[in-house]
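wait is this the right file?? whatever heres the structure
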């Protein structure tokens, strides 16, 4: 995150009416077709509609984040993708195969093309790192020589070759997850499901694991689906994001669009938690709700893209014929694009601030007045 007075913003987000905009997805690796999942009442528990009318596609070779609170339906979605659950209605198509219609041996064969990374690693304590990676290959009937070669290759890929003979109890959390990732890749899957894979890790280890997943995506072309409740994970790794609330998709777009123009309250809540209010404490303590003599209106502008010069400030200054102060700036690289917010000081009282907000809205910048400062 950097702040710089010459920050530039070249491309505002284009607003659209629907909360869930249509996205063109070529050659989808995973496709959900009018998918619903309900669990019947059991003992003293009522029936639950876990998912309803899930309909979208995930592009081949992409990294997509699926984010939602506990109980939103994320776990059900995972179990439908890998065939552990059957939908109540609709279909799940994975690499051209209707997973929801398979059972027995055809399902088991299809599941080999879907790797799974778990939150708590799920390693067998009685097996070494190498033997944990080898397990799915043994089940698939690989020869000992091929297993040995594949395990060595995977240990090198996840940068943990020196832990070949270590047991899980001898490994750190990050090392265990690297073994879990290697095991998930053992049978050369086309899809990799990451189910809260970094939730049990500290921030530094989380960054390292997400960097590893990004490298795997680049090197192997595997499609990665991140199931998470952490927007910071989505921000670092995903290109597309799907927000689930109450079993329904409430918002879906490029991750940079989500960060600059969140439309649904659930998305806005996730973003407020990861970004905070982006107002420096020294400025927040001085904000007044009404105009102050010779003061400035404080306006926050959500921005995307970068170019030479301070585009937004310069354009607004020309429009209002006043000097605009850049009070604060916060910029992140999200989904391969620069995304963040500027906090501007606009002189001229309430009338000038209304003109500024009107101008920004006309040019598709999301903006709000935070208050006034002397």
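ok assuming it is, sequence goes like this
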């Amino acid at each position: 995150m950097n702040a710089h007075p010459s920050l530039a913003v070249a491309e505002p987000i284009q607003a659209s009416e629907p909360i869930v905009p249509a996205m063109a997805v070529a050659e989808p690796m995973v496709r959900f077709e009018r998918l619903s999942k309900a669990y019947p009442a059991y003992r003293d528990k009522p029936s639950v509609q876990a998912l309803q009318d899930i309909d979208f596609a995930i592009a081949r070779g992409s990294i997509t984040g699926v984010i939602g609170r506990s109980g939103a339906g994320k776990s059900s979605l995972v179990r439908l993708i890998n065939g552990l659950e059957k939908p109540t209605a609709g279909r799940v198509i994975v690499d051209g195969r209707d997973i929801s219609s398979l059972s027995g041996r055809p399902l088991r064969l299809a599941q080999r093309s879907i790797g799974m990374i778990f939150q708590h690693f799920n390693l067998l304590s009685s097996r070494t790192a190498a033997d944990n990676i080898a397990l799915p290959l043994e089940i698939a009937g690989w020869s000992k020589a091929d297993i040995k070669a594949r395990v060595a290759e995977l240990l090198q890929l996840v940068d943990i070759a020196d832990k070949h003979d270590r047991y899980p109890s001898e490994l750190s959390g990050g090392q265990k997850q690297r073994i879990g990732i290697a095991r998930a890749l053992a049978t050369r899957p086309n899809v990799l499901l990451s189910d809260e894979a970094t939730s049990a890790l500290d921030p530094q280890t989380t960054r390292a694991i997400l960097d590893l997943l990004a490298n795997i995506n680049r090197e192997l072309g595997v499609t990665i689906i991140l199931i998470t409740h952490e927007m910071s994970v989505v921000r670092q790794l995903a290109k597309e994001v799907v927000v689930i609330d109450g079993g329904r998709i409430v918002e879906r777009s490029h991750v940079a669009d989500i960060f600059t123009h969140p439309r649904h309250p659930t998305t806005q809540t996730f973003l407020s938690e990861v970004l905070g209010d982006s107002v420096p404490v020294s400025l927040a303590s001085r904000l007044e709700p009404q105009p102050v003599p010779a003061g400035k209106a404080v306006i926050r502008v959500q921005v995307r893209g970068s170019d030479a010069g301070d585009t937004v400030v310069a354009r607004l200054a020309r429009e209002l014929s006043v000097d605009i102060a850049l009070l604060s700036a916060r910029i992140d690289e999200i989904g391969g694009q620069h995304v963040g917010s500027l906090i501007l000081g606009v002189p001229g009282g309430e009338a000038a601030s209304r003109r500024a907000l009107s101008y920004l809205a006309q040019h598709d910048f999301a903006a709000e007045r935070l208050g006034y400062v002397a």
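The longest helix spans residues 203-220. so i think its the right one actually
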